[in-house]
């Protein structure tokens, strides 16, 4: 028998026709076979960018009548239901889901970028009342709830495998697109903000939320990669040219460059993994989201202005279940009944803390990883405790210290977050003790001085003092000074065998700050000398305020030195030697009312050791080695009699009540940089964007080195 001739494809079955119909004027009913043909179609058209732009524009014009966005989202939910319920689902079921989420992402993104007056009602996420609903379709009045329920259910309940990898990736891309409505609004969440998809994510059951948080973190820890020899999905065209939907450009979906993005190696600090990156960004966006709500207070019989004023005064932020799930995550190694005998329900997120710790240590050159570490140590007491009892703290601390060493190559916010993490860790005395017990054979990335057999604690002192020096010359940020000095103050009582170089840098810190103090004092004297007094609002008044701040800084450094001399002098002969070597630095401040008591203690130590040196004047020339040996010997006989005891300084970090005002724009900037996700810069209100001819990062955006928003921090002295 002869071969069966192939059946020619009908025009209405071609990709050109189906995509054209999807964006066109004709509305296809939800039960039409048009949707099945569209979702089963290999999307391998090659349209130029202008045609894709035109398709998106047509879709935006016609969607209000066709409601095709709502319909394809319903089909997406249906496809995901089938994928979850069908165990070992065949490839066609997953491919329909991939196509549905892929097309939804492209056109949803364009609509979000082009909504009028930031009104997400222009997305038309509802069906016409007369729309017939086919049997088997469960239609909720709130389509975004149905979609997010099924998207999150698939992410949380279906393991990542070779077969499901692509769908997981596309669903994470969809999540970023759906949550990008945040980019349309200002820094502080307001009552008029409309984020339908992320709001829908917030109202899901706690058990599902826990599954999603766990899966996103496992994606980040495991960092799964699709094998190079895996099946080539037809949603991507073969050859060097991308298919129609990959050519959407900044108008719609530049994030879809798969498989080129995640099959290519990266030059990042840690090898980038698209699924891991997107999982972490989605998790952090969810974690820091807070919806502004108005309290249930009657405003009837009031004028409009009065009612609006009362409503604004009665606003609050809704609880965030993802934040709670992350805060309550527990180590998988512990039994469900914790050491205090408390039982926990089955929805608790359980994670391998050991693997998470190691993954963070390998990735801390990346800002998003630093944000995750900060989020965990500030919010999850179990994880913080786990970090503090690890014996290999260098796994986390070495990449943190190396990043601080290269501060000039980093954003200011990256530096701030790292310093706050160190401050949080330094609040624990066992941490401060253990870092001095760990000896590093070498520190190859430190170039100014050969660091051989130095303790991790000594390296931390070196880097913190170096960061203050860098800040004095470059950033000149007082919060950064405060955080560095607070960390050093917390460390001081437990300092043990501080190295010679670290001791010199610590005394040098007093020298650096005293120079700044003296210059300010001279300038103020010049101004007062000319005018006779400090005028309110004058430059002299500003300098006086700055002088007061540097007076506080100098006092903290003196208290750091005092804490070492009072509580740990016998264990730190190098600190004594460094103070003796630069003792002239302290003389100008002996009579200063803020410093005199602290300086007295330092001079008691100097007098003790200087007298021991004087007793050996007949021994000939003094060398560094001879002086140090004399100090070491006499440290053993030091009793500290007559030293004035000061209360140990202890600083703690307290996060502001609304951290989302800093973190939300920060995370979105990183998402736009690392997830291959672009957005029309002219519609971004979440942070300032340079609208000059320069592009926004590699995918269409350029950002300032300094992020938008201030990380308002409370570094407080515990009394």
Folded structure, characterized:
This protein has 28 helices and eight strands. By secondary structure, it is mostly helical. Helix 22 (500-531) packs parallel to helix 24 (573-581). The N and C termini lie far apart (96 Å).
List keywords for this structure.
8 strands; lipoprotein; mainly alpha; 53% helix; two-stranded parallel sheet; myristate; two-stranded antiparallel ribbon; Dymeclin
Give the SSE layout.
Elements: H1 15-23, H2 33-39, H3 49-66, H4 68-85, H5 91-113, H6 143-157, H7 165-179, H8 196-202, H9 206-222, H10 260-263, H11 274-287, E1 292-294, H12 304-313, E2 315-317, H13 321-327, E3 330-331, E4 350-351, H14 353-363, H15 367-379, H16 381-389, H17 394-405, H18 412-426, H19 429-434, E5 439-442, E6 452-455, H20 456-475, H21 478-491, H22 500-531, H23 539-567, H24 573-581, H25 596-614, H26 624-635, E7 651-655, H27 660-674, H28 697-700, E8 713-717
Parallel strand pairs: 3-4
Antiparallel strand pairs: 1-2, 5-6, 7-8
Protein name: Dymeclin
Organism: Hevea brasiliensis
Family: Belongs to the dymeclin family.
Calculate Rg over CA atoms: 31 Å
Low-confidence spans: pLDDT under 50, at least 5 residues?
Answer: 1-8, 228-269, 297-303, 336-341, 693-709
Can you list the strand order of the major beta sheet? 1-2
Q: What proportion strand?
A: under 5%
Overall pLDDT:
83
Number of helices: 28
- Number of E strands: 8
Main beta sheet:
2 strands, antiparallel
Share of helical residues? 40-55%
Apparent shape = elongated
- Report the end-to-end length measured between terminal Cα atoms: 96 Å
Helix-strand makeup class = mainly alpha
Family: Belongs to the dymeclin family.
Keywords: Lipoprotein, Myristate
Organism: Hevea brasiliensis
InterPro entries: Dymeclin
């Amino acid at each position: 028998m002869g071969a069966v001739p192939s059946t020619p494809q009908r025009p209405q079955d071609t990709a050109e026709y189906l995509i054209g119909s999807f964006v066109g004027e004709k509305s296809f009913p939800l039960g039409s076979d048009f949707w099945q043909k569209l979702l089963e179609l290999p999307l391998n058209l090659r349209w130029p960018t202008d045609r894709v732009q035109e398709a998106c524009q047509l879709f935006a014009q016609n969607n209000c009548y066709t409601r095709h966005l709502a319909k394809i989202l319903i089909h997406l939910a249906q496809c995901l239901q089938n994928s979850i319920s069908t165990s070992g689902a065949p490839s066609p079921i997953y491919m329909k889901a991939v196509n549905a989420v892929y097309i939804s992402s492209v056109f949803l993104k364009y609509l979000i970028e082009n909504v009028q007056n930031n009104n997400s009602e222009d997305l038309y996420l509802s069906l016409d009342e007369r729309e017939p609903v086919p049997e088997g379709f469960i239609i909720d009045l709130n389509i975004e709830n149905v979609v997010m329920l099924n998207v999150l259910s698939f992410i949380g309940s279906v393991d990542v495998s070779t077969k499901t990898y692509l769908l997981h990736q596309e669903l994470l891309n969809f999540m970023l697109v759906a949550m990008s409505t945040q980019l349309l609004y200002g820094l502080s969440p307001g009552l008029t903000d409309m984020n339908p998809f992320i709001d829908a994510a917030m109202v899901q059951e706690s058990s599902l939320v826990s599954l999603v948080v766990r899966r996103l973190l496992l994606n980040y820890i495991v960092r799964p990669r699709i094998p190079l020899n895996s099946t080539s999905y037809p949603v991507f065209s073969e050859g060097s040219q991308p298919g129609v939907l990959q050519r959407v450009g900044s108008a719609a979906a530049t994030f879809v460059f798969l498989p080129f993005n995640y099959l290519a190696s990266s030059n990042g600090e840690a090898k980038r993994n698209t699924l891991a990156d997107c999982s972490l960004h989605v998790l952090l966006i969810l974690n820091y989201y807070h919806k502004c709500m108005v309290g249930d207070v009657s405003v009837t019989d009031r004028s409009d202005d009065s009612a609006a004023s009362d409503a604004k005064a009665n606003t609050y932020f809704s609880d965030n279940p993802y934040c709670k799930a992350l805060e309550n995550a527990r180590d998988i190694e512990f039994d469900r009944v914790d050491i205090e005998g408390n039982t926990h329900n089955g929805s608790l997120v359980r994670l391998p803390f050991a693997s998470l710790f190691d993954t963070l240590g390998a990735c801390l050159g990346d800002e998003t990883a630093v944000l995750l570490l900060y989020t965990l140590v500030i919010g999850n007491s179990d994880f913080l405790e786990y970090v503090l009892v690890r014996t290999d703290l260098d796994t986390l601390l070495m990449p943190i210290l190396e990043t601080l060493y290269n501060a000039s190559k980093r954003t200011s916010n990256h530096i701030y977050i790292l310093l706050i993490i160190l401050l949080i860790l330094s609040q624990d005395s066992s941490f401060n003790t253990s870092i001095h017990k760990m000896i590093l054979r070498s520190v190859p990335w430190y170039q100014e001085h050969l660091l051989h057999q130095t303790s991790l604690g000594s390296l931390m002192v070196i880097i913190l003092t170096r960061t203050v020096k860098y800040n004095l010359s470059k950033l000149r940020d007082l919060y950064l000074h405060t955080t560095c000095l607070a960390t050093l103050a917390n460390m001081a009582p437990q300092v043990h065998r501080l190295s010679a170089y670290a001791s010199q840098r610590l005394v040098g810190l007093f020298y650096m700050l005293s120079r700044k103090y003296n210059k300010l004092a001279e300038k103020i004297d010049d101004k007062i000398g000319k005018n006779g007094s400090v005028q309110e609002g004058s430059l002299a008044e500003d300098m006086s305020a700055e002088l007061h701040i540097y007076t506080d800084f100098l006092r903290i450094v003196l208290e750091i030195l005092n804490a070492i001399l009072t509580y740990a002098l016998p264990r730190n002969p190098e600190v004594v030697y460094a103070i003796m070597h630069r003792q002239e630095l302290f003389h100008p401040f002996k009579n200063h009312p803020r410093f005199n008591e602290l300086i007295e203690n330092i001079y008691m130590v100097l007098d003790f050791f200087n007298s021991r040196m004087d007793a050996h004047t007949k021994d000939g020339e003094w060398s560094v080695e001879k002086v140090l040996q004399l100090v070491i010997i006499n440290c053993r006989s030091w009793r500290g009699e007559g030293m004035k005891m000061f209360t140990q300084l202890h600083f703690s970090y307290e996060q502001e009540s609304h951290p989302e005002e800093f973190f939300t724009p920060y995370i979105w900037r990183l998402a736009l940089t690392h997830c291959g996700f672009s957005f029309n810069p002219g519609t971004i209100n979440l942070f300032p964007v340079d609208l000059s001819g320069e592009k926004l990062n590699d995918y269409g955006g350029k950002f300032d080195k300094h992020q938008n928003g201030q990380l308002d921090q409370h570094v407080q002295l515990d009394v």
